[in-house]
Amino acid sequence: MTAARPERTWFGQPRGLTILFLTNMWEQFSYYGMRALLVYYMTKELLLDQQWSSIVYGTYTACAYFTPILGGVIADRLLGRRLAIVIGGSIMAAGHFMMAFEPLLYAALATIALGNGLFLPSLPSQIDSLYTADDPRRGWAYNVYYVGVNLGGFLAPIICGTLGETLGWHWGFGAAGIGMALGLCIYVWGQRYLPPEPPRRRDPAAPRGAFDWRMVAALVAVAGAVTVFRGAYEQVGNTVALWTDSGVDRRAGGWTIPMTWFQSLNPLFVMLFTPPLLAWWARRAERGIVQSSARRMATGALIVAGSFALLAFASATAGGAAAWPWLALFFAVLTLGELFILPVGLGLFARLAPEGYGATTVAAWFLAIFTGSLAAGFVGTLWSSTTPTAYFLMLAGVAATAAVLLRAIDGFVTSVEMRGANKAVDTSPIGTIVSDQKI
Fold first, then answer.
1. Burial, 15: exposed, middle or buried (Cβ in 10 Å; 0-12, 13-18, 19+)?
2. pLDDT-based confidence at residue 430 (cuts at 50, 70, 90)
3. Tell me: the pLDDT tens digits for 385-421?
4. Domains, in order of start, for the chain
């Protein structure tokens, strides 16, 4: 009898995880690299009106979350995950290179959003298939994968932003396109290490879970609060970026920090804060202290409200341009709040999904991000008609309103979570804090 051949791994994990990690890292590099430049490119190079630039920015980020709702269905039913990633990644790379041509701005943004629809839902869905159900490494796979999300997001503003600010905006957009193409090449090369395609035909007679209208009402209520929250949160790449350019003293030791570099702080703080936050939640859970999902999300929204209040204070007391450490502190506080609300919300939607409606329910989370991003575009149009101090106080009020809404629905949402043995309140945030993308 021949002994079973030992599994060949990279870094103690299946080789396919490294392929997915690197593919996603470069895709995130391209997305955040272009996003770091977009509002500056529209207002400084194309000389578009600030209000219109805000609407364009909000519409683009919204569409980046709407197209995956349709793209996931197309990948599952028609193309398969691998072909969907290759086609979607190729379309996205083309869109990034189109950004180098000024007349193609709107067409380029639409192209990137369409490609993202096929790409985004198909890549992380392959992770589980790399492991057997009892593999202890399975729970940590998403932690490893999420590092790729934030590593790409951290490097993008530094590389693409520096090229865009020093050599020209088109150089930055070109670097984003090269990153997307590199990620696609890695994925194509490494397909032999990935799990086989699942069957795409579904038995129409397959049983589905009972549809619970209380669950639907709970998720709609959470989605409404998240929509309000993102009206403030999404200003990070929009009006906060504009203030970084015009209202912040970025000098440090005789050197001026590039304005796009501050966009790297959010993913950097995600990587720094996630391990201790998970450990803290785990210790509290061991002592029987577990916040309900809605209350934890309300805490996060309140922390984010505090971050915008911090910007208002910095702007009001600066007597001119605010010192850049205030902006760094803002990103630290904002990121802490983000980790309390956005990944937890995604986990809540996934956990409450009835049997047979998992993809549909998670797609509803992306729909909430879509509506929130659209709202953020319109909120951003107020930037030019008010002072930075008043504007940031308004954003603090928007985030605080989301916190009040989440706290108000806490009892109802918790009662829905507690119904049934499989719908208990989450006491292990490890699997949910690491699985959201482009949040």
1. middle
2. very low
3. 999 999 999 999 999 999 999 999 988 888 887 774 3
4. 11-197 (1.20.1250.20), 210-439 (1.20.1250.20)
Q: Which burial class, exposed, middle or buried, applies to 225 when counting CB atoms under 10 A from its CB (0-12, 13-18, 19+)? A: buried
Q: Cβ distance 145 to 19 under 8 Å?
A: no
CA 96 vs. chain centroid, Å, equals: 19
Which helix H or strand E contains 249, and what residues bound it?
Answer: strand 248-249
Other beta carbons within 10 angstroms of residue 83's beta carbon come to 14
Report d(CA 118, CA 300) in Å as an integer: 31
pLDDT of residue 211: 61
Tens digits of residue pLDDT in 312-342: 999 999 878 899 999 999 999 999 999 888 8
CB 191 within 8 Å of CB 82: yes
Model pTM?
A: 0.82
Cβ 25 vs Cβ 184: under 8 Å: no
CB 133 within 8 A of CB 7: no
Q: Tell me the β-bridge partners of 10.
A: 13
Angle subtended at Cα 301 by Cα 297 and Cα 303, rounded to the nearest 5 degrees: 115
What is the per-residue burial (b if ≥16 Cβ within 10 Å, else e) of 230-264?
Answer: bbbbbbbbbbbbbbbeebbbbeeeeeebbbbbbbb
Radius of gyration of the chain (CA): 22
Contact by Cβ (8 Å): 18, 141: no
CB 39 within 8 A of CB 235: no
Q: 149: helix, coil or strand?
A: helix
Distances in Å between the Cα of 363 and the Cα atoms of 67, 70, 310 are 10, 9, 34
Helix (H, G, I), strand (E, B) or coil at 214: helix
* Structure token digits, residue 16: 């396919």
